[in-house]
Structure formats: C-alpha cells, structure tokens
Specification:
Blueprint (H helix, E strand, L loop, with lengths): L3 E5 L20 H5 L4 H11 L3 E5 L2 H4 L4 H9 L4 E6 L7 H10 L5 E4 L18 H10 L3 E4 L5 H10 L5 E3 L17 H5 L6 E5 L1 H6 L7 H12 L4 E3 L10 H12 L4 H16 L1 H5 L5
Parallel strand pairs: 1-2, 2-3, 3-4, 4-5, 5-6, 6-7, 7-8
Helix pairs in contact: 2-11
C-alpha cells in the first residue's frame, strides 16, 4: 500500500536564515520541544515506510514565511509536497499565492485556530478574503483549513459563493465526538459532506476525539467514509506536532481503519492525498 502522510511540519535549526515569526506572536510549545528538520523528517518517514509527505507550513513558527517548506520540496521533490500559509485578508493575497505556487508549492493554508490561537478566528469568510478564494477556484488551487467546528457556518457561505474550491479540513475541524453515534455534537461536520469540494484530514487529534466518552474510533472512521467516501478522507500524522513517531501515528490510524475495505484504506492512506494535490492523479480518478 502506497502511504502518503498528509500533514507534517519541518523546523530549521538555522534561526538566522529562517527567523521566528509565529502567527499570534508566540511560538508553539511543540516546535520548541520537538523540532524536526528536513533530514529528520525524511528519516522518520523512512522508518515508518511512508513514501511521501505533505509538508505543511509551521504557522506557529514562521508565520507566512514559507521558505523552509520551499527548501524541503526543492531538495526532495520525489518525497515532499509543500503547503504554504498566507494572509487571506491582505491586499496582496493573490500575488502571494502566485508567488508561492511559482516556488513549487501546491496549495495554501489558512490558519484560523491552533495551540497558540485558541478559539475560532472571526475573519474566516470576510469579504476581503474573496479574491484569494476566487483565485483558488479559478486555478484549482487546494485550500487547507486549520479551523474549529465553530467556523463551519462561515465555510458553508464561502463554498456557496465559490463552489469549485477544494478544501481540506485539518483534524476534521476538531469535532466533539464524545456523545458517540450518531454524533449529534458533530452533526455540522457530517452535514458538510453535501459540499463535494470538502475533504477531511484524519489525524491523531480526530482519532483521540473519537476515543472519548461513548465514541469509538473505528465507528467514527466508518461513519466518515459512509458520509464522505474514502476518496475525500486523507490520513496525516501531524508529526512532529503530535507526540510519537510517524510509525506510531500510522499504526494508530491503521487500527481505526482496519475494518474498512482494502480499497478504502488505500485511498485514506495514500490515494486521496495523491489526487488532492496532484492534477494528473485527480484527472484519472474521482474528484471529491
């Protein structure tokens, strides 16, 4: 099975070349405690038998300075796909999208919550961001969203305005699953399946949420696939933000998905990511 990790980060030891500029003004604790550079990420992927990884900009370290992600992709284009961060409200947002795409990166991320920015930022869906969304729709540029469930109403309105945009929700938008089936606390997440461009990133955060209260991880994964289809669910380790190795985190996800059909597992652990970020792959398969 080809495995692609949809969510990793890299942190350089060279703070002169890559100075700190975290969104929110405070560096994340995980990036201070468990920094992993490009070579370290490659070793960890090799140890886990992971063929490729999406390197997502470490927004709580470098903000919108995506140069270290560019370095990773240029050094190992056969192993890495790069996702950059932008300020969608900035007057030059479209210019910055064009710039980072030209640098070899494959889609942008909007950071509206996180360990250094708890809660849901209220700017998601602001009209000043419309040019960035329109550009993404016109040019088929994927959008990765770090958000909470509280941001889903704003996302729904954006997707009504820009229905052709493909989005990927980090950590499944951090749902509360503790009530178990039928997940009434997370019904908005399942309702988003009605928008064909919405994809979900299945990470340790979502799986840990699915292991609380009355919830069971295997049931949650099965219900996600039933609602969205496996071609709209992609596994990501969140290494090194997540504690543990990619091998450990992959094993956790494989256990939760073990009851699925082999074809669905192949999509979740590789096929969905390949199609989401690779136009040639997407042309040959279903568009989520």
């Amino acid at each position: 099975m080809l495995v692609i990790d949809n969510h990793t980060h890299v942190i350089s030891a060279d703070t002169e070349r890559y100075p700190l500029a975290p969104i929110g003004g405070r560096q994340s604790e995980w990036s201070q405690a468990r920094p992993v550079d490009i070579d370290g990420l490659l070793r960890a992927l090799d140890d886990a038998g992971i063929a490729k990884a999406v390197v997502v900009q470490a927004s709580t370290v470098y903000g919108h300075d995506n140069r270290y992600v560019v370095e990773a992709v240029r050094a190992h284009p056969d192993r890495f796909i790069g996702v950059y961060s932008i300020d969608a409200l900035a007057p030059d947002a479209v210019e910055r999208i064009r710039y980072w795409q030209a640098e070899g990166l494959s889609g942008f991320r909007l950071f509206t919550t996180g360990t250094t920015m708890p809660g849901q930022a209220d700017w998601l869906g602001h009209e000043d961001s419309y040019p960035a969304w329109a550009h993404a729709e016109e040019h088929d540029i994927p959008v990765c969203l770090q958000m909470t469930m509280q941001g889903l109403p704003a996302l729904r309105e954006l997707l009504k305005r820009f229905p052709g945009v493909r989005v990927l929700l980090d950590h499944c938008a951090r749902p509360d699953l503790s009530d178990g089936r039928p997940y009434r606390n997370a019904e908005d997440l399942f309702a988003m399946a009605a928008f064909p461009g919405v994809h979900l990133k299945l990470t340790h955060r979502a799986l840990e949420a699915a292991d609380k209260g009355s919830s069971v991880p295997a049931e949650f994964v099965a219900d996600l696939v039933a609602a969205y289809g496996a071609n709209r669910v992609a596994w990501g380790s969140n290494f090194p933000a997540a504690e543990g190795t990619p091998a450990d985190l992959l094993a956790q996800a494989r256990k939760a998905a073990s009851g699925l059909a082999r074809a669905d597992q192949e999509l979740i652990f590789g096929g969905t990511s390949a199609a989401f970020y690779t136009p040639a792959e997407r042309a040959g398969g279903p568009r989520g």
